[in-house]
Amino acid sequence: MALSKTAPVNNAPKPHRFMPSGPLAGRIRVPGDKSISHRAIMLGALAVGETRVTGLLEGEDVMATAGAMRAMGASIAKIGEEWRVNGVGVGGLLQPRTALEMGNSGTSTRLLMGLMASHGVTATFTGDASLSRRPMARVIEPLGQMGAQFHGPAGGTLPLTVEGLCPAVPIEYRLPVASAQVKSAILLAGLNTPGITTVIEPVPTRDHSERMLKGFGADIEIEEADGDRIIRIRGQADLVPKSIEVPSDPSSAAFFVVAALIVEGSDLVIENVGLNPTRAGLFAVLRDMGGQIEELDRRVVGGEPVADLRVRHSHLSGIEIDPALAPSMIDEFPVLFIAAALAEGTTTTSGLEELRVKESDRLSAMAAALSGVGANVEEREDGLAITGTGGALLRGYAGNQIKTHLDHRIAMSMAIAGLVSTKGVEVDDIRPIATSFPAFADLLKTASGAAQ
Ligand code: S3P
After folding, report:
1. 452 CA distance to ligand 1 centroid (A)?
2. Is residue 67, in this structure, part of any structural domain at all?
3. Domain holding 142: CATH number?
């Protein structure tokens, strides 16, 4: 079944039952990395000249970013397999004429607020019910210090109107929460701010912004000192257009990696998976649990380490997961919980408070979802403890629909649970999957021999 990448947000929920599956086999390729795709559009839209992007993720979230950058003057079009972005130059963003509709996308919202903060433009950001609950204070705080003004609900949620300031004031900011979105918002604001803007990261988070800013010729330096990562950007320098090849998203590959590990008889190759060390935590954890995940043909694509992953069905054992690994697998916990539900013994996680402010509260959503399919799960304040079946199938459907709370990763994780259940798993709404992985259901069908 094809999922429309342009599904309107207000149409009716689309339930779907994901059925038990045969082995996953063959070779598949998942779509482009979401984080890298957002950044490619944003930086391309700020460079003078034409940036060309292949492998761009054409999900709703990235299209929201493209829509906003068009509204601020960039021209963005797909020609053949290539996206072409003609930018306005750093400092050249135009005043958008209507509100910027961000749909479900926290990354678009927070990074674009950063970009706008140092431009003399004013814009209102709106989003769907999930995004409208998510905290924006984490970017309002530093961007406010740089001079931007924010008008909206007292709790710092959408709809929010941002009034940028040009010239903005450079700041030095130590991140109070491990967040690549907050880091990136400040660096992007720093692009059009005179002087040096500094972000200090006590805990490293995904570094795609730094890598890509460097690639576009920004004046950016990174220093490691006393366990901190210190990133300095000197503003008001031009960006030069680039050709970018976006590797496949490890966060999307994660669903197929877990599926192949837990469905008996599977032997699947997932091609071209981005393995940036700030993103690859899940694969290390799954190997520690006994997962057979082999890296084939390691190479560099678009400035990022990449490999094909060969994944075979494995007997998994429960482990205690080091909370220090959380930032490197922050989006992968929902599907890791599915692997844990099939492992032998108990898997415990902690230090995961951030999961409560993602597209949904992923700790409570996954605890409810897993109990709803018969798994043994305990919800704690900062993590889950899951005792697995040791490989036996989950019960699955018992007349109930799993609530996905407009969260694509809950829907896809529970789809994978359906593959290893006796009766399938019915999720209440598959529309949100199109935010990050429009072809998910089709690819699952291909890899699992059309059981879906
Ligand atoms: C992202 C950073 C992470 C991640 C999100 C994408 C990014 O969010 O969860 O899906 O592209 O910078 P946080 O920075 O809030 O942890």
Report:
1. 30
2. yes
3. 3.65.10.10
CB 352 within 8 A of CB 363: yes
pLDDT at 8 exceeding the cut of 80: no
Report yes or no on 11 lying in a domain.
no
> Does residue 5 form part of some domain?
no
121 & 193 share domain: yes
Q: Examine the domain organization and report whether 359 and 443 are in the same domain.
A: yes
Candidates 179, 352, 354, 437: which one to mutate for ligand 1, based on the most atoms within 8 Å of Cβ? 179
Q: What's the pLDDT tens digit per position in 242-296?
A: 999 999 999 999 999 999 999 999 999 999 999 999 999 999 999 999 999 999 9
As beta bridge partners, residue 26 has 268
331 catalytically annotated: yes
Say whether both 66 and 139 belong to one domain: yes
- Summarised one tens digit per residue, pLDDT across range 44-79 is 999 999 999 999 999 999 999 999 999 999 999 999
Longest Cα–Cα distance of the chain, Å, equals: 61
Pick the residue whose CA is nearest to atom 11 on ligand 1.
35
From residue 304, alpha-carbon distances to 40, 59, 242, 324, 432 in Å are 13, 21, 15, 22, 28
HSE of 164, CA atoms in CB hemisphere, 13 A: 29
Same domain, 27 and 39: no
How would you classify residue 399: left for phi > 0, otherwise alpha for psi between -120 and 50, otherwise beta?
left
Asked whether the beta carbons of 163 and 151 are under 8 A apart, the reply is: yes
Query: What pTM was estimated for this model as a whole?
Result: 0.97
Specify if 6 maps to a domain: no
Q: How far is the CA of 107 from the centre of ligand 1 (A)?
A: 6
Could you say which of 234, 261, 286 is where a domain stops? Answer: 234
Residue among 44, 180, 9, 209 at smallest CA distance from 110:
180
Contact call for residues 433 and 33 (beta carbons, < 8 A) = no
Q: Please state, in angstroms and rounded to a whole number, the distance separating the CA atoms of residues 97 and 94.
A: 9
Indicate the residue among 234, 262, 284 that finishes a domain.
234
Q: What's the gap in Å between 231 CA and the centre of ligand 1?
A: 18
Range of the domain at 252: 16-32+247-448
Percent of the chain with pLDDT over 70: 97
